[in-house]
Amino acid sequence: MSIKFPISAFALATAITLVYGAVANAEVYKTGTNQVVVTGLTAKQKYEVQTVNAKGKTNKRKPATANACGELLVDGAGKMKSVVVGTQTIDPATLPTKAHARCQVKKTATAKPIKTQKQPATEIMGIPATSPGSVPGTSPMPK
Description:
- There is one protein chain.
- By secondary structure, the chain is α+β, with helices and mostly antiparallel strands.
- It has one helix at 4-20, and strands at 28-30, 36-38, 46-52, 62-65, 72-74, 82-85, 88-90, 123-124, 127-128.
- The protein contains one helix and nine strands, in the order H-E-E-E-E-E-E-E-E-E.
- A hairpin with a 2-residue loop joins strand 6 (82-85) and strand 7 (88-90).
Protein backbone atom coordinates (compact mmCIF):
# COMPACT_ATOMS: atom_id res chain seq x y z
CA MET A 1 0.00 0.00 0.00
CA SER A 2 1.36 3.36 -1.01
CA ILE A 3 1.57 6.25 1.43
CA LYS A 4 1.24 8.73 -1.44
CA PHE A 5 -2.58 8.59 -1.47
CA PRO A 6 -3.31 9.72 2.08
CA ILE A 7 -0.75 12.52 1.84
CA SER A 8 -1.86 13.67 -1.62
CA ALA A 9 -5.56 13.45 -0.74
CA PHE A 10 -4.94 15.45 2.43
CA ALA A 11 -2.82 17.99 0.56
CA LEU A 12 -5.49 18.32 -2.14
CA ALA A 13 -8.27 18.78 0.41
CA THR A 14 -6.25 21.38 2.28
CA ALA A 15 -5.20 23.26 -0.85
CA ILE A 16 -8.69 23.30 -2.32
CA THR A 17 -10.05 24.52 1.00
CA LEU A 18 -7.49 27.32 1.19
CA VAL A 19 -7.69 28.36 -2.45
CA TYR A 20 -11.38 27.95 -3.15
CA GLY A 21 -12.94 28.00 0.31
CA ALA A 22 -14.44 24.56 -0.23
CA VAL A 23 -15.40 22.03 2.40
CA ALA A 24 -12.40 20.37 4.05
CA ASN A 25 -13.73 16.80 3.83
CA ALA A 26 -12.61 16.24 0.23
CA GLU A 27 -12.13 12.71 -1.02
CA VAL A 28 -10.29 11.73 -4.18
CA TYR A 29 -10.76 8.38 -5.93
CA LYS A 30 -11.14 6.85 -9.37
CA THR A 31 -14.02 4.84 -10.77
CA GLY A 32 -14.10 1.65 -12.80
CA THR A 33 -14.89 3.81 -15.85
CA ASN A 34 -11.61 5.76 -15.47
CA GLN A 35 -13.08 8.92 -14.00
CA VAL A 36 -11.20 10.72 -11.26
CA VAL A 37 -13.63 12.07 -8.68
CA VAL A 38 -12.84 14.89 -6.26
CA THR A 39 -15.57 15.44 -3.64
CA GLY A 40 -16.18 18.08 -0.99
CA LEU A 41 -15.89 21.03 -3.36
CA THR A 42 -18.11 24.07 -3.66
CA ALA A 43 -21.18 23.22 -5.75
CA LYS A 44 -21.29 24.86 -9.20
CA GLN A 45 -17.76 26.32 -8.72
CA LYS A 46 -15.38 26.31 -11.71
CA TYR A 47 -11.94 24.69 -11.33
CA GLU A 48 -9.04 24.54 -13.77
CA VAL A 49 -8.19 20.95 -14.76
CA GLN A 50 -5.15 19.77 -16.68
CA THR A 51 -4.09 16.21 -17.49
CA VAL A 52 -0.82 14.58 -18.48
CA ASN A 53 -1.28 11.43 -20.55
CA ALA A 54 0.67 8.18 -20.16
CA LYS A 55 3.20 9.36 -22.79
CA GLY A 56 3.89 12.53 -20.82
CA LYS A 57 2.01 14.92 -23.10
CA THR A 58 0.49 17.80 -21.12
CA ASN A 59 -3.01 18.69 -22.27
CA LYS A 60 -4.36 22.21 -22.27
CA ARG A 61 -5.94 23.49 -19.01
CA LYS A 62 -9.73 23.43 -19.18
CA PRO A 63 -12.32 24.81 -16.80
CA ALA A 64 -14.55 22.18 -15.19
CA THR A 65 -17.51 22.85 -12.96
CA ALA A 66 -18.28 20.90 -9.81
CA ASN A 67 -21.77 19.42 -9.86
CA ALA A 68 -24.59 20.37 -7.49
CA CYS A 69 -23.22 17.90 -4.91
CA GLY A 70 -19.76 19.53 -4.92
CA GLU A 71 -18.10 16.74 -6.92
CA LEU A 72 -15.73 17.24 -9.82
CA LEU A 73 -15.57 14.31 -12.27
CA VAL A 74 -12.71 14.18 -14.76
CA ASP A 75 -13.50 11.71 -17.55
CA GLY A 76 -10.71 9.42 -18.75
CA ALA A 77 -8.34 10.68 -16.09
CA GLY A 78 -7.94 7.24 -14.50
CA LYS A 79 -5.61 6.32 -17.38
CA MET A 80 -3.62 9.55 -17.17
CA LYS A 81 -0.17 9.93 -15.67
CA SER A 82 -1.39 12.88 -13.61
CA VAL A 83 -4.34 15.20 -13.17
CA VAL A 84 -3.99 18.77 -11.94
CA VAL A 85 -7.01 20.31 -10.22
CA GLY A 86 -6.34 23.94 -9.41
CA THR A 87 -2.71 23.83 -8.24
CA GLN A 88 -2.74 20.27 -6.87
CA THR A 89 -1.37 17.31 -8.80
CA ILE A 90 -3.11 13.95 -8.43
CA ASP A 91 -1.50 10.65 -9.42
CA PRO A 92 -4.43 8.43 -10.49
CA ALA A 93 -2.28 5.29 -10.09
CA THR A 94 -2.22 5.87 -6.32
CA LEU A 95 -5.99 6.39 -5.97
CA PRO A 96 -8.35 3.71 -4.73
CA THR A 97 -11.01 2.50 -7.17
CA LYS A 98 -14.58 2.62 -5.99
CA ALA A 99 -18.10 2.97 -7.35
CA HIS A 100 -19.45 6.44 -7.76
CA ALA A 101 -23.06 7.13 -6.83
CA ARG A 102 -24.79 9.64 -9.07
CA CYS A 103 -25.32 13.08 -7.55
CA GLN A 104 -28.79 13.49 -6.07
CA VAL A 105 -29.36 16.89 -4.56
CA LYS A 106 -31.87 16.88 -1.73
CA LYS A 107 -34.69 19.26 -2.47
CA THR A 108 -35.87 21.38 0.39
CA ALA A 109 -39.53 21.92 0.99
CA THR A 110 -40.75 25.23 -0.30
CA ALA A 111 -43.85 27.03 0.81
CA LYS A 112 -46.63 26.78 -1.71
CA PRO A 113 -49.38 29.37 -1.78
CA ILE A 114 -52.71 28.09 -0.51
CA LYS A 115 -55.36 28.12 -3.19
CA THR A 116 -58.38 30.04 -2.05
CA GLN A 117 -61.82 29.40 -3.39
CA LYS A 118 -63.75 32.35 -4.62
CA GLN A 119 -67.03 32.71 -2.78
CA PRO A 120 -70.15 33.42 -4.78
CA ALA A 121 -71.54 36.91 -4.43
CA THR A 122 -74.51 35.47 -2.60
CA GLU A 123 -72.33 34.48 0.39
CA ILE A 124 -70.27 36.54 2.80
CA MET A 125 -68.03 34.48 5.08
CA GLY A 126 -70.27 31.46 4.58
CA ILE A 127 -73.45 33.35 5.61
CA PRO A 128 -76.08 33.70 2.90
CA ALA A 129 -76.62 37.31 1.95
CA THR A 130 -80.20 38.41 1.74
CA SER A 131 -81.44 41.82 0.69
CA PRO A 132 -78.93 44.71 0.82
CA GLY A 133 -78.34 45.87 4.39
CA SER A 134 -80.06 42.81 5.81
CA VAL A 135 -78.00 40.14 7.56
CA PRO A 136 -79.81 37.28 9.33
CA GLY A 137 -79.91 37.64 13.12
CA THR A 138 -79.51 41.42 13.11
CA SER A 139 -82.06 44.18 13.28
CA PRO A 140 -82.34 46.74 10.54
CA MET A 141 -80.58 50.04 11.01
CA PRO A 142 -82.75 52.93 12.10
CA LYS A 143 -83.41 55.57 9.50
